[in-house]
Amino acid sequence: MPQLNPNPWLFIMLASWFTFSAIIQPKLLSFVTMNPPSNKMSTTPKTTPWTWPWT
User: Which stretches are transmembrane (predicted)?
Assistant: First the structure.
């Protein structure tokens, strides 16, 4: 069965994973996010009940 022969695709798979993990991934991880998370205290907005005219 030719699909069980690892000779053609094993090198391509290993080369692509090496390229991704050694070259592309550090470049992607070096970007700084535009909106970094902040430590603001979460406040709940004050809501007033709606007065329905038919009740």
Answer: 6-24
48/5 Cα distance (integer angstroms): 71
Query: Which tokens sit at 49?
Result: 């009940």
Q: What is the pTM of this model?
A: 0.44
pLDDT in tens, 11-48: 889 999 998 888 888 888 888 767 767 777 777 878 88
| Buried-state track 18-30, b at ≥16 Cβ within 10 A, e below 16 | eeeeeeeeeeeee
Cα(33)–Cα(31) distance, integer angstroms: 6
